[in-house]
Design a protein that fits this description.
191 residues; tt1808, chain A; 2 domains; six-stranded mixed beta sheet; three-stranded mixed beta sheet; 23% helix; nuclease; Uma2; Uma2 family endonuclease; Restrct_endonuc-II-like; endonuclease
Length: 191
Amino acid sequence: MAQPASFDWLAKINRSWTARLALDLLPENKGPKVEVFRGSVIVTPHAVFDHQEIELELAHRMKRAARQTGLWLYHEVNLVSGDDLFIPDIVVLRSSGAGKVSVDISEAVLLGEIVSKGSRRKDVIDRPREYAAAGVPWFLRIDFRNRVPALALFALEDGEYRPTVAAAAGSVFAMKEPFEFEIDPADLVED
């Protein structure tokens, strides 16, 4: 018989966590992000409103461009990489995730992270390293210091991400791959 989904499992499980274990035992929620990294559960509260605004605006604008090339864009979905469970801010997939709870990282074409003040190391070093090791071809970093957004696109080369294009607010970020997309990063913020 299946176990009921509950956050109580966080206190009951006394062994390394896996993506499958988390997906099977923990409930779907609109609360904090619950990820698994190297056997540990990572619980993160929602980011500040600026982060959320940038994420939604960027996902909305990029989605149409991705679909025109046969790719599928989502934000904050369950991405399984071996035993790890990531929830990137932006996810571009080779195929639709419709009806799925999670998708394997091998389906990812581009993963994007908005750098948060409290998780800078994770967003700038740890996650890109893991995504590169999994073979994700493109990584998009959205930085937001002093309320000034900047975007940088990285391509996977020889197992590491190398910058291909970058722009800060007031200039044009124009990427050609994995699909064409242009934006002034300043357009991602409300004011």
